[in-house]
Amino acid sequence: MWSDASDAGDRGPMTSEPLVEMRRVVRRITAGSDSIAIVRDVDLTVLRGQSLAILGASGSGKSSLLELIGTLSRPTSGRVLFDGADLSAMPERGILALRRRRIGFVFQSANLIDHLTAAANVALPLAYAGVARSARPARVRHWLDRVGIGPLASRPVARLSGGERQRVAIARALVNEPDLILADEPTGSLDQATGQEIMRLLVGLAQQRRALVVVTHDMAHVRQFDRVARMDLGRLIAMDHAADPCGA
């Protein structure tokens, strides 16, 4: 289990141990009579302890790549490995269990259940993963506090602002203490200061032998990451250390 991300003494260095590996991955979709490649021949390795930002214009394939990494879609060809296991050989039940227990998602839209409270929304992944009911409240409160909205735990999310809702969604993604955190524009609805704080939290968690992959347009956050990739027309066309984010 994670310790609190603010405890720098518990942060491990980046390792050479791959968590995610993609080998010549292609994803095609059908549009009418046409077959369109939205992800093309991607080779990518994400290590434990590593944070990766993916940049690119709208329609470049960033979100489609994130879906493949997160098992939300399957490649048309190529291989995706998670912690050494080839996902193409894994039954759907195994994919679902892996996704629930080991991957945390933050989407552009918060996708919350409006009539439930913030705490109830964050608790849902714990229920799906089979975490004991008695263990849930403390973990829910911990992560709501970590994203700065602990006092709003009992408020229905329909009564929260856009930024507050996004922070609930981030807490929900983290509450199962996943090995892999995937985020699609996680700070888009947050003010600059809160966005920086949330991104520091995510990057810090990745340093604890987890991994973080973030799709973002916000160059203000990019230098916090270990690596930066750029996509264009479905291809990874550049990969740099964050000190020189793809020539930015």
From TrEMBL:
<feature type="domain" description="ABC transporter">
    <location>
        <begin position="20"/>
        <end position="248"/>
    </location>
</feature>
<dbReference type="Pfam" id="PF00005">
    <property type="entry name" value="ABC_tran"/>
</dbReference>
<dbReference type="InterPro" id="IPR015854">
    <property type="entry name" value="ABC_transpr_LolD-like"/>
</dbReference>
<dbReference type="GO" id="GO:0005886">
    <property type="term" value="C:plasma membrane"/>
</dbReference>
<keyword id="KW-0813">Transport</keyword>
<dbReference type="GO" id="GO:0022857">
    <property type="term" value="F:transmembrane transporter activity"/>
</dbReference>
<dbReference type="GO" id="GO:0005524">
    <property type="term" value="F:ATP binding"/>
</dbReference>
<dbReference type="InterPro" id="IPR027417">
    <property type="entry name" value="P-loop_NTPase"/>
</dbReference>
<keyword id="KW-0067">ATP-binding</keyword>
<dbReference type="InterPro" id="IPR003593">
    <property type="entry name" value="AAA+_ATPase"/>
</dbReference>
<keyword id="KW-0547">Nucleotide-binding</keyword>
<protein>
    <submittedName>
        <fullName>ABC transporter ATP-binding protein</fullName>
    </submittedName>
</protein>
<dbReference type="InterPro" id="IPR017871">
    <property type="entry name" value="ABC_transporter-like_CS"/>
</dbReference>
<dbReference type="InterPro" id="IPR003439">
    <property type="entry name" value="ABC_transporter-like_ATP-bd"/>
</dbReference>
<dbReference type="InterPro" id="IPR017911">
    <property type="entry name" value="MacB-like_ATP-bd"/>
</dbReference>
<dbReference type="GO" id="GO:0016887">
    <property type="term" value="F:ATP hydrolysis activity"/>
</dbReference>
